[in-house]
Amino acid sequence: MVDRITPEARSANMSRVRNKNTKPELLVRSVLHRAGYRFRLHLDDLAGSPDIVLPKYQTAIFVHGCFWHGHEGCRRSKLPATRIEFWRAKIERNKERDLTAKQELTVLGFKVVTLWECELKPASAILSRVDSVTGRGEL
Length: 139
Known about the structure:
There is one protein chain. The model has no long low-confidence stretch (mean pLDDT about 90). By secondary structure, this protein is α+β, with helices and mostly antiparallel strands. About 40% of the residues lie in helices and about 10% in strands. It has a four-stranded mixed sheet, sandwiched between helices. It has one domain (about 15-130): 3-Layer(aba) Sandwich (Endonuclease, Chain A), CATH 3.40.960. The chain contains four helices and four strands, in the order H-H-E-E-E-H-E-H. The longest helix is centred in the last third of the chain and has 24 residues, at about 85-105.
């Protein structure tokens, strides 16, 4: 299958893909805020620059897009039909970087939660995952 647009146009499209304040991330932040959690965003001084950090609970939350982070078994993580090796290598690098960040945060004493884009509905699923890690749901 041949790409229908030029490499320059494809590059321009891809450069507009955001990595902060995405719709899934905004949804998670909204759910957490309504539940009374207070958090910090995108702390660059922590490994992997977690999307959300709950300082009170020493918890880092990553909101991962299924495609970009290679969510195993998810229909949204299907590789494109063109440039397969490029995409496979890119996704593998992302997965390695995610694993390294998780390990480094764990060593620092953080609990790490990964929320996948495909698992964000219903909103109660977000809250139950975070509550179970923070221990707040047991109160």
